[in-house]
Amino acid sequence: MSEKVSRRQFAKLAGLSAAGMASPLEAAEAKQARARSTAGFPAGFVWGTATSSYQVEGAVNEDGRGASIWDKFVRIPGKIEDGTTGDRANEHYHRYKEDVALIKALGCKAYRFSVAWPRVFPDGDGKPNPKGLDFYNRLVDELLKNGIEPWLTLYHWDLPQSLQDRFGGWRSTETCKIFGDYAAYVAEHLTDRVRNVFTLNESGRFVYFGYGIGIDAPGLTLPQAEVNQIRHNSALAHGLAVQAVRAHGRRGTRVGPAENVDACVPAIDTPENVRAAGIALREMNAGYLNVIMTGRYTDAFLKFAGADAPKHTEAELKIISSPVDFLGLNIYAPQHYVVASDQGAGFVPLPIPKSFPHMNSDWLRVGPETLYWVPKLAATIWKTDAIYISENGASGDDVVTQDGKIYDTDRIMYLRNYLAQLQRATAEGVPVRGYFLWSLMDNFEWVYGLNKRFGLYHVNFDTQVRTPKLSASFYRNVIARNAAGV
Fold this sequence. Notes:
This protein is α/β, with parallel strands linked by helices. It contains 18 helices and 13 strands.
């Protein structure tokens, strides 16, 4: 007991607290906490939205575009849930001006899009297709004309089919070298107006799902050793792209990865569990993101992989770890809640109960605290001072009512709670500089086809009419206030 507080005074304070009346100290702390939670995001915080080329562009056989692995994959019976393809998608290739107007209506100052590699290089390499580059020139110009900053992604899964046929796609380092050449070409021609470039989107997804379990294109099921080697190759491709952007882009162009980080969250907020969650975040991402950020594979990863560990050279590790300007994190749901352990790696991932709440997609568990803990831990582990949430969003039921409206309060619930946790992180000084909501509009959602809707704008895929959902108004308000609205 402090000498400055007598037992009688302490009893009085305790009595006030028990009666629901805070002590002066508690009241001051509560006031400070409220101030932090309502202060909003930092000045200059980047608010954006995102799409990807195959999911929205359509026009797959127009203006010299070559075939991608997804053009072939969607035609394999049973691979796409509803049997649809991205042949038409959102017709963004022809309706991009209309879609840029939708972005502007939200108040977004940034738009993340991807370049379709086979639209620019129909065979992946060789002679470029000028009409393909022309589309992205027009898109970038339209964005800038409307006060929207273009954020370009070099690869969002639409690998040219020719490279898959000739080299086995990402199984070969030849594809990595060609990707570097493609990155150099794009950087040379677009970074006079595009200042921020993401390299590869979600290596963790397209490698494992595409080459490990065959759910995504190209639909292969390879041994774990090959999957680990392909993941290493994708990290090498990232490094080569970083170097290409540095060498061929406008001076000052910023570049970094965009990864669906394997999200680890402390089950209980205690120092030992937070420490364990940090270890888990590093080790669960050791095969890609950690080697990019540190230039080495962890001892625990190499031990666990054993004979299946990727073969690599020191020269490759140096390329892979080429310094980046920012870290893009795609964060949707907690993959692992962890607790500390005095055995093994120092953490234990806990099983996820079947009753855990989720959105319209079963995999999309609702864990708002993920958007607090993952950036907070990532900034410490990987020593970065610039993190962007390159994707976050939710699928919903999105029922169109008789009045033609979509009252997606489920999505608003998700966004409100996640953004409140992100605001909590920035209030504590976690260096999150921006947020890109997935997605601008409903689109071709990979293996789900057109069944899963993530957009702020509802799309009637028969008429191509875009209709703002209630969540569009919610996001517009968040941007206008620069605050989560809690």
